[in-house]
Write a structure and sequence with these properties.
Blueprint: H1 3-24, H2 31-34, E1 40-45, E2 57-62, E3 70-71, E4 83-88, E5 95-99, E6 104-107, E7 115-117, E8 124-129, E9 136-140, E10 144-148, E11 156-159, E12 164-169, E13 176-180, E14 191-194, E15 202-203, E16 214-217, E17 224-227, E18 232-236, E19 244-247, E20 255-260, E21 267-271, E22 277-280, E23 288-289, E24 301-306, E25 313-317, E26 328-332, E27 340-344, E28 351-357
Antiparallel strand pairs: 1-2, 1-28, 2-3, 4-5, 5-6, 6-7, 8-9, 9-10, 10-11, 12-13, 13-14, 14-15, 16-17, 17-18, 18-19, 20-21, 21-22, 22-23, 24-25, 25-26, 26-27
Length: 374
């Protein structure tokens, strides 16, 4: 190497480095499009116990991972309504909320503004939403459900053999699972699955004997889980084709809710009555009870939501000890290992019915994960 050739080499190296730097620079990523659990909804309703009958409630919204919350004021519904089911798309842009035995409300701007529709003629109950927000399913106690493939703009009514409550969708919307509510004289409604975007449904074998208050599904739809209103969980790892029963609580508790990560690896279930939280990190094969740092006696975890990676989770409480007013929301930022009380008396004299967060596409830190309440 001569001095001139060395100098030329340095120039070429510097130019190459600049080109490489330019080639790896990506467009700025908006936080709301990638952060897990940034957008959250919590629904509350005054009611007379497990029957979920109420006429007054509130819908709360967080845009910073649960650090702070504000009451949603939907023009058509006002502040007070019996909010029942909520759902949030992957990015948080599309959100849906149903008022019990009333209308459905959809937002396409991260919960800032809401439009109303009433596809079930005042018979709405639970809701589920696909990853993009394009597909939405609303259940009812009227043996029918409403499905939308247009972000809630238009609806198709699907007759059902039973009354559906909880419902969950895969990211594509193709795979869906719904739990039956309410027992008749002959049998309970059972558990149903769909691989036709909710257009048709198939009963899961031997599920007709039970009520299924909580259901969950992985992003692909491969892993599906449902809690029956006793101590066990029914799970599938083949898109709902076959099912295995797992005794989670050794016959000591009543399960009410369940949520899972996008992969299905991390799953969390909530008990009703004992106030216990159970977690699994092996796709629902084995479960362990979480040791909570607060008194959860008499609490009923009516809904659980889990982010994409499973790192961020939240649960809402439905039935409180009558001596204590207000519902409770708890959250975890370590895959459900530890939980903190977000706010005691979150909504005074109200019972938490449903909670949802955007799954997100990464586990970027969001807001103040210490969980400052309202």
């Amino acid at each position: 190497w001569t001095r001139d050739s060395m100098a030329l080499g340095w120039v070429l190296a510097a130019a190459l480095a600049s080109l490489l730097a330019l080639s790896t620079v990506s467009a700025p990523v908006r936080a709301e499009e990638s952060a897990e659990g940034q957008y959250r909804l919590a629904a509350f309703s005054t009611s007379n116990g497990i029957s979920k009958v109420g006429t007054v409630g509130q819908l709360w919204r967080s845009t910073n991972g649960g650090s702070s919350w504000a009451v949603v004021k939907v023009a058509a519904a006002g502040v007070s309504a019996a909010w029942q089911g909520v759902g949030v798309s992957i990015t948080g842009q599309y959100q849906v909320a149903a008022v019990l035995n009333a209308a459905v409300y959809v937002s396409s701007d991260y919960g800032m503004t809401w439009t109303t529709s009433n596809p079930l003629a005042n018979m709405s109950n639970g809701v589920g939403i696909s990853g993009s927000g394009q597909y939405i399913t609303v259940t009812s106690w009227a043996s029918k459900l409403a499905v939308s493939s247009s972000f809630g703009s238009n609806w198709t009514i699907i007759p059902c053999p039973v009354m559906f409550g909880a419902v969950a969708l895969s990211d594509s919307g193709k795979y869906q699972i719904a739990g039956g509510e309410g027992c008749g004289l002959a049998a309970c409604p059972g558990l149903y699955v769909s691989n036709t975007y909710g257009a048709s449904w198939t009963s899961v074998a031997d599920s007709w004997m039970y009520i299924w208050p909580g259901v969950a599904m992985s992003s692909s739809g491969q892993f599906q889980s449902a809690v029956r209103e006793i101590y066990s969980i029914l799970r599938s790892s083949d898109y709902g084709a076959t099912w295995t029963t797992t005794d989670v609580t050794n016959g000591t508790a009543t399960l009410m809710s369940i949520g899972m990560s996008s992969s299905g690896q991390f799953q969390t279930a909530g008990d009703c009555g004992l106030g216990a939280i159970y977690r699994s990190s092996d796709y629902g094969q084995t479960w362990s009870e979480v040791q909570l740092s607060f008194n959860s006696t008499f609490m009923c975890w009516s809904s659980v939501t889990v982010s994409s990676s499973g790192k961020f989770q939240a649960a809402i409480e439905y039935l409180r000890d009558s001596s204590t007013a207000g519902s409770v929301v708890i959250e975890s930022s370590d895959y459900g290992v530890t939980w903190r009380l977000l706010a005691a008396g979150f909504y005074l004299n109200g019972r938490g019915t449903s909670v949802a967060m955007n799954r997100g596409t990464s586990n970027l830190p969001v807001g103040n994960q210490a969980g400052v309440g309202v």
